[in-house]
Amino acid sequence: MKILILNASPKPLGTISQMLKFLEDEIRRKNPSAEIENIRVSSLKFSACTGCMKCRSCGKCVFAGDDADVAGEKIASADFLVVASPCWWGNMTGSLKSLFDRNVFRLMGESKHGIPLALLKGKEAAIVTACTTPFPFNVICRQSPGVFSSIGEILKSAGIKITAKICASGTKQKPGLTMSRKRKIVKVAKKI
């Protein structure tokens, strides 16, 4: 099984990164034959999507060959995705959104009538987020749910089934890998 982890946190030692390291270790422990790759989205070098829509007709981006293109190929070839982003204004990070924008032609096509067509059916994913806002205010203020919704919309449009979600709220008061967060991660690792 090929597992791709997309880490959209710019903090290599932040809560998201700690959670993903623990998740990766748990997956390896439960499934030693799994092929796991971890991509730090903030370290990728690529041009932002210009909305030219040429990828729809030619099947590749006009900026093909940069890091977004390479990451997109890995997304398309993975069996399972772990997409992780801290909550920024109730949404995913801009770098993750830009990566998805650049790879729209790999995620979804369209019929001759303009109806979206999912191109990655059969794949599964988990979404991981962290938010400084404590529970239940992270939910009431639509912080964590906003991240799940925005990433989920992209994955669902691609035909990817979301099998798990992990949310670490209140990270300002309780940063890092708490016991509660470890328990959630262990449950998710069992599903992969």
From TrEMBL:
Keywords per UniProt: Flavoprotein, FMN
GO molecular function annotations of the record: oxidoreductase activity
Keyword Calcium: no
A Pfam family that the UniProt record links to this protein: FMN_red
InterPro entries per the UniProt record, alphabetical: Flavoprotein-like_sf, FMN_Rdtase-like_dom, ISF_SsuE-like
Domain NADPH-dependent FMN reductase-like: 1-130
Regions annotated as coiled coil: none
Keyword Flavoprotein (UniProt): yes
Classification via PANTHER family: IRON-SULFUR FLAVOPROTEIN (PTHR43278:SF2), NAD(P)H-DEPENDENT FMN-CONTAINING OXIDOREDUCTASE YWQN-RELATED (PTHR43278)
Protein name: NADPH-dependent FMN reductase
